[in-house]
Amino acid sequence: EDKVVQSPLSLVVHEGDTVTLNCSYEVTNFRSLLWYKQEKKAPTFLFMLTSSGIEKKSGRLSSILDKKELFSILNITATQTGDSAVYLCGVSGGSNYKLTFGKGTLLTVNP
Amino acid sequence: EAQVTQNPRYLITVTGKKLTVTCSQNMNHEYMSWYRQDPGLGLRQIYYSMNVEVTDKGDVPEGYKVSRKEKRNFPLILESPSPNQTSLYFCASSTYAGGTNTEAFFGQGTRLTVV
Lengths: 111, 115
Known about the structure:
Number of strands of chain A: 11
Oligomer: heterodimer
Shape of chain A: globular
Shape of chain B: globular
Order of helices and strands of chain B: EEEEEEEEEEEEE
Number of strands of chain B: 13
Distance between the termini of chain B: 36 Å
Distance between the termini of chain A: 41 Å
Largest sheet of chain A: 6 strands, mixed
Helix content of chain B: under 10%
Structural class of chain A: mainly beta
Helix content of chain A: under 10%
Radius of gyration of chain B: 14 Å
Strand content of chain A: over 45%
Strand content of chain B: over 45%
Largest sheet of chain B: 7 strands, mixed
């Protein structure tokens, strides 16, 4: 059975801090790993990672994948209150391209 | 504008009364799926469809049905809803090429309450 585990489940930081969110996975025939941000609505896409060691960046957010150790990290530098959200990690795999999600990390950024 | 549209956004219904949640996408995506999201459990896949007339069960299919008669539409049917189906539901679509999915686009969500 495919499995995606995110840690921590919850995190509280102060504005300006840097955070690292973790996602480990066990998926048959890995295809891609995706990160989403979810505020009080639908998840919005952040990154898709398919190759090991290649960092994806968007502003203060960055992510990298390690296919040997089966994990990914999402970094957010200089956090702002607007970064408060649930961050979801999803992994696609198998012959049916099934997308399995972790339970998410709830990030709270206090002023 | 590329989008996935779900209706209704909110629904309160009674146990046993059949209902359908519609989902439509305008991106010509092959792959569509339904998820439910519950506190502490994350997003769990209910059903998915790899193309027209091709559907299969996800992780939590009991009590749900789907159909894929047209590429753009993927309705979720609850034949006899029960209170344990109270949840937030998301429809998503994506395409796949070169051996991987593209990003999944999500609908706005349907908050269903079964009393």
